[in-house]
Design goal:
By secondary structure, this protein is an all-beta fold. The chain has no helices and 7 strands. The chain has strands at 6-13, 21-30, 41-50, 60-69, 79-90, 95-105, 116-126.
């Protein structure tokens, strides 16, 4: 089986007076293989602000929202969604730490006994 599809994203200046720079982004994907892919469609967007704190010019504030269509092999519902807030701290040129907070709504589609899930995490990135 394969994961063929169409994927794309676009990032543009926001024009908002936030931090040193701020960008809006939109992205999406489509796969014709809904019997193979768990989420054959996705659309999302958000805002990225660089240097929101004057003494932290390389840090990023991240806000995003996304909606993934679920495969009919997985659920009778059409989608699940997510809202995310994150902050990427640039510790040095090789290391960054990114705590995130997500709200996942309509988890696993309709009929879930759980109305939503609050998830927290930390992404640590090291470049050699």
């Amino acid at each position: 089986e394969n994961g063929n599809g169409v994927y794309g994203s676009l990032t543009l200046p926001s024009g908002l007076p936030l931090g040193l720079d701020s960008r809006v982004w939109i992205g999406g994907s489509y796969s014709p293989n809904s019997d193979v892919d768990v989420s054959p469609t996705f659309v999302g967007g958000g805002l990225v602000i660089q240097g929101a704190l004057a003494d932290r010019p390389l840090d990023l504030v991240l806000l995003g929202i996304g909606r993934g269509g679920l495969s009919n092999q997985l659920s009778d519902s059409a989608y699940e969604g997510m809202v995310e807030l994150g902050y990427r701290m640039q510790i040095n040129e090789s290391l960054n730490v990114q705590p995130t907070l997500q709200w996942i709504f309509n988890p696993s589609g309709a009929g879930s006994p759980v109305p939503g899930i609050l998830a927290a995490g930390v992404h640590i990135s090291v470049a050699f």
